[in-house]
């Protein structure tokens, strides 16, 4: 029953996260326009980073309240492969990842049903702008960089929680900007599946190769790099406790 509750919590949090993301772009554009800095890329980066930091803070609280729920399969896999998420197992992955994908569908359908048509007509979600192999590499490398950065920030970074969130937000925004001309990007298979489902390409090889296998491979490699090269040694942990 615990696993079922975790899967339901994942689905709920994922739907909320994906529902929130389009508003991020809308608010960034509105704030940039009101400040008269819409033509300045660095201003948009700063505004987006601040908004993402706020959203991450809110979702961290919600995720904790839901018992450690996650809205991204790559993050769950990275923590598991790095040996940092004891409640994950192959069985949990088999149950929770589909739940997150289902949450992605609910989130996309909800946002398309709420926003005006003139806005939703431009929303297509992640899309492949390069060949299949380049797309796989782009999603894999971007997710590798993002997951490795998150692990380092969380477990080897500054102690201040707000600074941690700010660094994670800046890394996320930077990765999204870098991958825009390649795959969207997604770096979140649940998000990609949600948009693929409503756009009727959820049964395509492109989705699972580029937007599932690519990010999950990148997350796994990032976790292994952190676990074997960057994570604090047991001896150092004992010294800190002493």
TrEMBL record:
On whether Transport is a keyword of this UniProt record, the answer is: yes
Q: InterPro entries this protein is in?
A: Aquaporin-like (IPR023271), MIP (IPR000425), SIP1-1/2-like (IPR044222)
Primary residence: membrane
Which keywords describe this protein according to UniProt?
Membrane, Repeat, Transmembrane, Transmembrane helix, Transport
Which residue stretches, if any, does this entry annotate as coiled coil? none
Q: How does it sit in the membrane?
A: Multi-pass membrane protein
Q: Which Pfam families match?
A: MIP
Q: Where are the transmembrane segments?
A: 6-27, 39-59, 135-155, 162-180, 209-230
Q: What is this protein called?
A: Small and basic intrinsic protein 1A
Which SUPFAM superfamilies does this one have?
Answer: Aquaporin-like (SSF81338)
What are the annotated GO cellular component locations?
Answer: membrane
A GO MF label:
water channel activity
Family stated for the protein in its record: Belongs to the MIP/aquaporin (TC 1.A.8) family. SIP (TC 1.A.8.10) subfamily.
Which compartments is it annotated to reside in?
Membrane
């Amino acid at each position: 029953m615990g696993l079922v509750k975790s899967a339901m919590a994942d689905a709920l949090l994922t739907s909320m996260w994906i529902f929130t993301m389009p508003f991020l772009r809308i608010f960034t554009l509105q704030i940039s326009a009101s400040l008269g800095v819409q033509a300045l890329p660095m201003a948009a980066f700063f505004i987006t980073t601040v908004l993402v930091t706020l959203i991450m803070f809110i979702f961290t609280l919600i995720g904790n309240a839901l018992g450690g729920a996650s809205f991204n399969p790559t993050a769950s896999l990275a923590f598991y492969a790095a040996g940092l998420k004891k409640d994950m197992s192959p069985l949990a992955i088999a149950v929770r990842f589909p739940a997150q994908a289902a949450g992605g569908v609910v989130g996309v359908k909800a946002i398309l049903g709420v926003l005006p048509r003139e806005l939703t007509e431009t929303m297509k979600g992640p899309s492949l702008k390069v060949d299949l192999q380049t797309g796989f590499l782009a999603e894999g490398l971007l997710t590798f960089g993002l997951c490795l950065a998150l692990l380092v920030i969380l477990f080897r970074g500054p102690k201040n929680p707000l600074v941690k969130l700010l660094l994670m937000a800046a890394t996320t925004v930077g990765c999204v900007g870098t991958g825009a001309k390649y795959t969207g990007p997604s770096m979140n298979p649940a998000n990609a599946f949600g948009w693929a489902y409503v756009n009727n390409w959820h049964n395509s090889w492109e989705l699972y190769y580029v937007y599932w296998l690519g990010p999950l491979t990148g997350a796994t490699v990032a976790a292994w790099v952190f676990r074997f090269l960057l994570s604090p040694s047991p001896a150092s942990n004992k010294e800190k406790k002493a």
